Amino acid sequence: MGIDVFISHAHEDDAKTDTVYDELTKAGFTCWVDHKHIPVGAKFYNEILGSLKQSKIVILILSSYSNTSQQVINEIVTVSRYEKQIVPFIIEDVKINETLEIPLACSQYKKAYPGEIDEYIPELINGVKNLLIDSSKTDSTRPNSIDFVYIMGKKDAKFIYNTIPKTFYCGYHGEFDLEIENTGSQTWDKHDYYVVGLGDVEKFGRRISTFDNFLIQPGQRGMIHFKYITPTIPNNYELHFVMRHKFEGNFGAPLVQRVSVITPPKTS
To answer: Each residue of 43-89: pLDDT tens digit?
Structure first.
């Protein structure tokens, strides 16, 4: 079954996105949004691509969050290459990201502020109806395959500060901090799977940790609180920390820290 409307959004806007989804569904449209339709364990990008391919039009819930979300940018650039209609539904006053300006240049913008988003949905529904009529006339001219487009910019990172002890006791639990600066040209979005990973050190802490803040713009710094569990056998270890994107691998210079794990002193 085809999809009338693919809804592209940042997850910080889930509540408003759900309102749009519910009202469009009540109006008789078949809608798709990732957090409602991607099954647990499914391959994220495969599900996105399949749904983009089936959709007739795309509604972009445009906010300060989606405006800088790399996942949203990738989705919009992808669908624009295949001449699908994109409707930016602007839920707050925001200057359009330069990367989105060309894909959205010919789009019919719908404003959804000030006031409650519900006030603006009837006009959105009418716009969707008209666009679906137009899209039915041109579907046969569109290609049958879609390749996901990545607008990455330069990824780079620098570890600025850490509170990693030089000595640990065997079998202890704890936490240390890592501060990382975004030295590239691409915004790090927590929901786009930007994490700090720890190299393969047997039984030493979590393999990955996420940032406190959701968005880290170029030139900004983010803080990681890394929980650890030390090995039970005394030894010297070399810890390797690196910035990582879940789907695209590591980037930036790693942080290498040599530590010792020792037997705790006996208590009398």
So the answer is: 777 888 888 888 999 999 999 999 988 889 888 888 877 778 889 99
Q: Tens digit of pLDDT for each residue in 103-146?
A: 787 677 888 988 899 999 999 998 898 888 766 655 544 444 44
Task: State the DSSP code for 3.
Answer: E
CA atoms within 13 A on the CB side of 71: 24
Distance CA 80, CA 160 (A): 39
* pTM for the full predicted model: 0.56
Q: How far is CA 80 from CA 74, 141, 149, in A?
A: 10, 14, 10
Cα 160 versus chain centre, distance: 24
CATH superfamily of 3-141: Toll/interleukin-1 receptor homology (TIR) domain (3.40.50.10140)
CATH class of 157-262: mainly beta
Burial of 15 (0-12, 13-18, 19+ CB in 10 A): exposed
| E strand or H helix at 256 | strand 249-262
